[in-house]
Amino acid sequence: DESAYCDSDVNMPTVQEWAKRESDGVPRLPKFDGTKSWWIFVCYLDNFTRYHHWTEEGRSAHLIAALTGDAADVLRILGGNATLSQLMDHLEARYAGAEHQRKAREELRSYRQKKGEPLRQTLMSIQNLSSEGYPKLSAEQEDYLYNLDAFMDALNDEELRFHLALQCPKTAVE
Fold it and tell me: pTM for this one?
């Protein structure tokens, strides 16, 4: 019974209300299934919370509504009376914890430009992996410490790599 995992004190919209909301052109909090960045989802959640003036209960209700796939398992694991803090802590541990960071760091070290992939996309992939692998660093620190080397290593074109190295960039963005 799915209702056993929902807090009955939170006024959740009906399916018809959600359908109406989805079709009115108002931006919606994206779904989170655990396959995309937890930190980017948290940024969305924070921005939506501020914009819509959600209370902690509203934030919790919208977070729960956004969970799908494997990420929704947290509702079964924690039960229907979990606090917002418990939900956030559990999701962060699962999707941004030490194991997730380790995997992102490994991917960052081994990332290689895909055939036909534009340089901008390669750089964005490197930056995303870096921010996932080193979440406590600022973007500037990540770029200085990790992104330039990872970007240069990722390039398939040896000649381009050589010419870029001659320019002595200090960051990957340069």
Answer: 0.63
